[in-house]
Write a structure and sequence with these properties.
This protein folds into three domains: 2-170, Thiamin diphosphate (ThDP)-binding fold, Pyr/PP domains (Rossmann fold); 189-355, 3-Layer(aba) Sandwich (Rossmann fold); 367-551, Rossmann fold (3-Layer(aba) Sandwich), CATH 3.40.50. It is built from 21 helices and 20 strands. Helix 20 links the parallel strand 19 and strand 20 (529-534).
Length: 552
């Protein structure tokens, strides 16, 4: 045992659990924790400009590394600002702990300054929310939070830290044991059933998604799919789980699902849904995989049994990690035992490739051409991030991610995610190229985090799709209330001047033919880069203009 404060105990427990990186905005309610950071040189606290940006960074960093994302914020406004990152972590099944400085125990229940009940505030958007009320139990509470965050379906946990608990000093023993999450392997009888079904299936498909994929899981997916020649579809914004350039990749089941992907999923006679939570995106707004699906046989695996039978009723469910079933199938089956209709796979791939060919855009800068050039020029291990909005269609629908490339994007559809995610990625992988796609409205949700990028020397490349409007809302507005524009126009600042004030290389790209040279300059810039792309508001989606919507 050692004499230490509650704040020191929080930090020492995290270090014992293997933590090495955190994000946050400093606050007077957790000064004891900030002070404890001074004694741990190898534990990094990245000070951000807004708690929402900090929480996004913690979530994206956890998604990229597979470790637990950590975020520290102050009470009241700080905590509510950070809630967007917690919601994103919950929807993406990302392990994360949000630490919130809290009003001291002696003042609670009196509506003290910035007081909130965090169990109630986060009850519906976090996996678990708690508060440390006894300094002697600090290590216990933090360790339990860590365990909950990584166990079963990974997710965010919230811990409130009363100020007086953090400053109390007592004898505390910090357990040094790491926390592992043992996962039962796929049951032998279930693997046998799936193997036999695969031998007779003509149109099997592997659908993958969800959080918590390890390097071993990704390798198992690649090995099993490629060796057995089973095609793969990824869930919304999980493109990077499987090499999109392989002929077995047939598309993404996400927002605006293509007709080719929908047809592929509806025609499949065997669906192996690996680590997937069937929801609105993967089911095309709850229209696929219904109970009256006739001959279609569905296997759903997940780390948590709570994810079964939410909407889809699978024929077989299995609680296991992805590699368990995939490795067993790969060991048990040989390609000659399968009778897959190769013409169906080829047709699905051809349909996917056709969907990658964007129409010429009615815009000074054609984002279809931009997306193609970015894909061609990106390094093989690049990391791409995006926020939310119609602009995200370009990296999400018109780019293919190879085996070593990564995509960090919000499952929750949260605007402002892309820039913080890119900064977190650059912090973790300074040697890798990180490119953020952002809309002009999306960018301004967290553009202040350019200060974090400057201070941390973590500077990505940012492509601002600048069309002077909240594009997604404008699209819906034109669909439902043609020519009646309300609240969706944007008057933007000079993004080039803004970027330069933060030490970034910056250019305004006025026309398509200027983009390639500008992007090459950006790739070569040691100070990161921001390219402001002149995109017409009329190019509202890759396939529809505003006039098209008004004519409907």
């Amino acid at each position: 045992m050692s004499q230490m404060s509650g704040g020191q105990a929080v930090v020492e427990t995290l270090i014992a659990l293997g933590a090495r990186q955190s994000f946050g905005v400093p606050g007077e309610s957790f000064l004891s924790v900030l002070d404890a950071f001074c004694d741990i040189s190898y534990f990094k606290f990245t000070s951000c400009r807004n708690e929402g940006g900090a929480a996004f960074m913690a979530e994206a960093w956890a998604k990229l590394t597979g470790e637990v994302g950590l975020c520290f914020v102050t009470r009241g406004p700080g905590a509510t600002n950070a809630s967007i990152g917690v919601h994103s972590a919950m929807q993406a099944s990302t392990p994360m702990i949000l630490f919130i400085g809290q009003v001291g125990l002696e003042h609670q229940g009196r509506e003290a300054f910035q007081e909130l009940d965090y169990r109630k505030v986060y009850g519906s958007i976090a996996k678990y929310a708690t508060e440390i009320t006894d300094v002697n139990r600090t290590a216990e509470v933090v360790r339990r939070a860590w365990s909950i965050a990584i166990s079963g379906r990974p997710g965010p946990v919230v811990i409130a830290l009363p100020e007086d608990i953090l400053t109390q000093t007592t004898e505390i023993k910090i357990p040094m044991r790491l926390i592992s999450t043992p996962m039962a392997g796929a049951m032998h009888f279930d693997v046998m059933r799936v193997s036999e079904k695969l031998k007779t299936a003509r149109r099997p498909i592997i659908v993958v998604g969800g959080g918590g994929w390890s390097a071993q899981d990704r390798a198992a997916l690649n090995q099993c799919a490629v060796r057995l020649n089973i095609p793969v579809v990824t869930a919304f914004r999980y493109h990077d789980l499987f090499d999109n350039t392989l002929p077995l990749f047939l598309g993404e089941a996400g927002v605006g699902m293509s007709e080719n992907t929908r047809q592929t999923l509806s025609q499949a006679d065997l669906v192996l849904a690996i680590n997937v939570r069937f929801g609105e995106m993967t089911t095309d707004a709850f229209t696929l995989f219904k109970d009256d699906r006739e001959e279609q046989w569905i296997v759903q695996t997940h780390r948590s049994g709570d994810e079964f039978h939410k909407y889809v009723s699978p024929d077989l469910t299995m609680i296991c990690n992805p590699s368990s079933l995939l490795n067993d199938l790969n060991d048990r089956l040989v390609p000659t035992e399968l009778s897959i209709d190769r013409s169906w796979v080829v047709a699905g791939r051809k349909g996917f490739e056709i969907s990658q060919q964007a129409k010429v855009q009615p815009s000074p800068v054609d984002m279809g051409v931009v997306s193609t050039l970015v894909q061609e020029l990106l390094p093989i291990d690049a990391i791409v991030t995006n926020g939310a909005g119609n602009f995200a269609i370009w990296p999400n629908k018109f780019m293919q991610f190879s085996a070593k490339q990564r995509l960090l994007a919000p499952q929750s559809g949260a605007m402002g995610y892309g820039l913080p995610a890119a900064i977190a990625a650059k912090l973790e992988c300074p040697e890798r190229c990180v490119v953020c796609f952002s809309g002009d409205g999306d960018f301004q949700m967290n553009c202040q985090e350019l200060g974090t990028a400057l201070q941390s020397n973590a500077r990505p490349i940012v492509l601002i799709v600048n069309n002077g409007t909240y594009g997604t809302i404008r699209m819906h507005q034109e669909k439902n209330y043609p020519s009646r524009i309300s609240g969706t126009d944007l008057i933007n600042p000079d993004f080039v001047m803004l970027a330069k004030s933060y030490g970034f290389y910056a250019e305004r790209v006025e026309k398509t033919e200027d983009f390639e040279a500008a992007f090459i300059h950006a790739l070569a810039s040691p100070s990161g880069a921001i390219l402001d792309l002149n995109v017409a508001a009329d190019a509202i989606t890759p396939s529809l203009t505003i006039n098209d919507l008004r004519d409907r």
